[in-house]
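Consider the following assembly input.
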Amino acid sequence: LAKTTQPISMDSYEGQEVNITCSHNNIATNDYITWYQQFPSQGPRFIIQGYKTKVTNEVASLFIPADRKSSTLSLPRVSLSDTAVYYCLVGDTPTGFQKLVFGTGTRLLVSP
Amino acid sequence: DAGVIQSPRHEVTEMGQEVTLRCKPISGHNSLFWYRQTMMRGLELLIYFNNNVPIDDSGMPEDRFSAKMPNASFSTLKIQPSEPRDSAVYFCASSFGTGRNTEAFFGQGTRLTVV
């Protein structure tokens, strides 16, 4: 089973770009990399997903190097409302069905 | 669609009582997940279903916990008897598809307090 490692916490200020890196050394060939965001008192919310190279949407960008053993979630010009926990997930389909296993996540605190 | 709907939003019960948490997944989704979240243990996957069939219940902590999915639009998580250490926020999530690139949608959660 692929496991992920990410920093426990990060601090930033409004307007800065934040990059959160996730390590997944045992990622399988067919695994995708997915990031979720969780605000206090809410369930996690899908942010972005990718397989290789770069993916961008209206919320974030995801950078994945050629070896796919890590990935970086990039949040451009963060605001106070981006304070949340960010989770990196990879594949995990031991039974052939996707098993969503969350790690400890990265707690991002954005200050004024 | 209203999203994943969980009920109740809050539940306070006494130790030893039976607790039933309910979840209505998004229409058309064929996978359903139950999670438990606490400060100490984070977000734990308890069980997940595909096409109403339990696929993996290895995360269910003990026999006091049971989950059912009688049809595609309803699932329950039952704790009997409940204990104070079961106090947590329980989330239900659903998704469509079974592959490695499916997106899951979470409900608002049920905050359970066992006193």
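The two ends of chain A are 40 Å apart (CA to CA). Ask yourself how this observation constrains the way the partners meet.
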